Amino acid sequence: MKNKAYIVMGVSGCGKTTIGKMLAEILKIDFFDGDAFHPLMNIEKMAAGIPLTDEDRYSWLLDINKQIKESFTKGRSVVFACSALKESYRRILVQQIEDTVVWIYLKGDVDTIGLRLKNREGHFMPSTLLQSQFEILEEPSTAIDIDITLDTNTIIHTIVKRLTKSDFGLVGLGVMGKSLARNFSRNGVILSLYNRFVAGSEEQVAEKCIAEYEELQTAKGFEDLKFFAESLATPRKIFLMIKAGEETDTFINELVPYLNAGDVIIDGGNSYYGDTKRRIEFLKSCGIHFIGAGVSGGEEGALKGPSIMPSGAPEAYKLVGEYLTLIAAKDKHGDACCSYIGKDGSGHFVKMVHNGIEYAEMQLIAEVYAYLRYAMKMQPPQISAVFSEWNKGELSSYLLGITAALVVKKEGNDWLIDLILDKAGNKGTGNWATIAASELGQPATLITSALFARYVSTVKEKMLIHLEQSSVKDIPVIVLDEIKSAYQLARIANHQQGFMLIHTASDTFKWNLNYSEIARVWTNGCIIRSVFMEELISVLKKKQNIFEDEKIVSITKAYKPALKNFVISALQYDLSIPSHLAALDQLNTLTGNYATANIIQAQRDYFGAHTYQKVGDASGKFYHTEW
Ligand code: 6PG
């Protein structure tokens, strides 16, 4: 390691000897008092109250410079206490060792220091000289500034904090940010944590977070961006866990002035993939790398190991990949559920589709719950038992498991689930997935149906219409095994659509994505982890469309009647089951030996001469008819 000279500077009485000695002790390096290098002549002059001239100081400064170099030749770093009041003095002090000097400036006003000098005994400098020191003082521009009114321990803590560099920076200490910070720290990463300062609501958030969690003791907290950036080893690696959208842009703009070319920003929020591409391009113009990383797993995943989907320039990923894989969940074989996804915003695109699949997976479970509860009249414990049973085998998934647990949670004498409003929120990723599917011309009807089911739930209150409920008394319910098969097939359809959406995007944007690897990254840590996802790793190695896989084809054939029966029965009970219906509808469309799009084409040609293609004409020629 390169030797360093830490020069603690400031006017006489600022405390540089005390602080310098303490610092040297903590850093376990040698301490020198600059005053001890004054020739006798200078000391006599000062004692007589005569200010030193630049000439008087010249040989003194050279001697200090000589001592530093000597220490370096012995492989020793040093702390020097030296007033170094003028820029020209500082230039002499650093001659031939410019890169090794760190300036620490103890800053105080003339009154504070004057008072200190008055109380000081046995020092050759009379307080009358203080004024002349302030007159010649030129404050350094590149020093670590320290306010001398702070107590000694705080001063030392601040200096050490600003001297030692952290491996990784993390911005935003909300629920996810906090958990990720703890995860990084547990894995031995030295962190700098930054949280903005908002008077009254977000004050000293980083420091408080460090004090709260034992594992964060090696971390440093900041609410000043300049100090935060300075605290990081270069190239800096900064992970953002802040609100997606405008807030992310605003923050990036604030951060960039403190960064250098080669630094890397990683956006771990649920950002829109188009924004990620734009940010990559914008930051490229300043030589700064930007990685958009989808992060899934909620609070627990962030703490114990999330699934991570990073994208951007491969050379940027190389700089941060080892840190991301370190904190990621591990798959069955112990490999990290984090993999370089591709260029641009492909990581956030994949995370967006993950969320779309998540929406539909949640909706499918909710629909099965509705059938069990309202058609089969099961109580929550029975429903929980059914879900738990299913969760033991091929249907096992994180979402099914948590639903088995949450339906039996009680509040007082009530099932908590019955006390929760029938109104589902969303943060927008399902909406983006629907828009992306629409823009790419890719049917993602399960995602869309699940998203719109949430929308319907939010308008229901206002739009409730009072229709006669059809009599459902005499309709037989279907058996549990059939419901299970229906649900299983609907899940297959959901995953097929999700992966086809990713496939279409990959082709359109030339991302060259690895679908099997995406499935692997989704086998642990994320919300849609499941036994089926594990099966998809090998399926997607061979087929891009999972409906071409032999086993999936045979399941589809075998379970379609169950899906149909479930849908019919649920509809007879007046239940809303849009995602199962979408799955069945997709299968009907894909397998039905009949046509409807021909009617659409004919209509288009009739009123708008939009032309059509003909059955049996392999040339793809377009025809128009004068209808
Ligand atoms: C995850 C989740 C996570 C979050 C969603 C919920 O993968 O960890 O998807 O990103 O739970 O933001 O989204 P909605 O609020 O839109 O349901």
What is the topology?
Blueprint: E1 5-9, H1 16-27, E2 30-33, H2 40-47, H3 54-73, E3 78-81, H4 87-93, E4 101-107, H5 110-118, H6 130-136, E5 144-147, H7 152-163, E6 168-171, H8 175-186, E7 191-194, H9 205-212, E8 220-222, H10 225-230, E9 237-240, H11 246-255, E10 264-267, H12 273-284, E11 289-296, H13 298-304, E12 307-311, H14 314-327, H15 346-375, H16 380-390, H17 398-406, E13 410-411, E14 414-415, H18 416-419, H19 429-440, H20 445-463, H21 480-509, H22 515-521, H23 531-542, H24 550-572, H25 578-591, H26 597-608, E15 612-613, E16 622-623
Parallel strand pairs: 1-3, 1-4, 2-3, 4-5, 6-7, 6-9, 7-8, 9-10, 10-11
Antiparallel strand pairs: 11-12, 13-14, 15-16
Helix pairs in contact: 1-7, 3-4, 8-13, 15-19, 15-20, 15-21, 16-17, 20-25, 21-24, 21-25, 22-23, 24-25
The chain binds 6-phosphogluconic acid (6PG).
Residues 270, 296-298, 355, 358, 425-427, 429-430, 526-527 line the site of 6-phosphogluconic acid (6PG).
Q: What name does CATH use for the topology of the largest domain?
A: N-(1-d-carboxylethyl)-l-norvaline Dehydrogenase, domain 2
Helix/strand/pairing category: alpha/beta
Average pLDDT score = 94
Count of helix runs: 26
CATH superfamily of the largest domain: N-(1-d-carboxylethyl)-l-norvaline Dehydrogenase, domain 2
- Cα end-to-end separation: 85 Å
The best one-word shape is elongated
Give the total of beta strands.
Answer: 16
As residue ranges, the low-confidence spans are: none
Tell me what the CATH architecture of the largest domain is. Orthogonal Bundle
Please report the first level of CATH classification, the CATH class of the largest domain: Mainly Alpha
Overall structural domain count: 4
What binds here, in terms of ligands, is: 6-phosphogluconic acid
Strand order of the largest sheet: 8-7-6-9-10-11-12
Helix proportion = 40-55%
The proportion of residues in beta strands is 5-15%
Major beta sheet summary: 7 strands, mixed
What is the gyration radius calculated from CA atoms?
34 Å
